[in-house]
Inverse folding.
């Protein structure tokens, strides 16, 4: 148990002073208050962000020009899909950051079963939530 405790503390790190410990505690409390305890909670927050903010960005702020299907035939579909994924990745990060929490959004990560997903979203230990982009 002593070795395990040392290994655990070495991995997460000890706070250097009381101010850093209070800051870590406040961050943990803020994480708990958001109601994101597992991947299902994270998926619900993401779904809500997609249905309101992302839909507004696409429909009202002119993102349809980026997603115009006539451009698909002018370039290679794979290159066009990369452009859409990169654009959505940064937009998703901004939308969720405005809601008060910072997520990790990975584009085209390779999973353990050798498959690739378009976007993988994590928040702390909650997640991952997989998002597939269809042109």
């Amino acid at each position: 148990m002593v070795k395990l405790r040392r290994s655990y503390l070495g991995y997460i790190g000890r706070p250097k002073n009381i101010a850093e410990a209070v800051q870590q505690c406040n961050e943990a409390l803020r994480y708990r208050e958001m109601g994101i305890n597992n991947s299902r909670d994270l998926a619900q927050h993401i779904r809500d962000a997609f249905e309101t903010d992302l839909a507004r960005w696409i429909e009202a702020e002119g993102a349809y020009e980026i997603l115009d299907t006539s451009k698909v035939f002018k370039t290679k579909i794979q290159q066009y899909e990369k452009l859409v994924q990169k654009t959505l990745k940064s937009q998703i990060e901004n939308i969720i950051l405005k809601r008060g929490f910072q997520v990790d959004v990975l584009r085209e990560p390779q999973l353990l079963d050798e498959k690739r997903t378009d976007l993988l979203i994590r928040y702390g230990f909650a997640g991952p939530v997989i998002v597939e982009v269809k042109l």
Notes: The chain has five helices and three strands. The beta strands are 104-107, 119-123, 126-131.
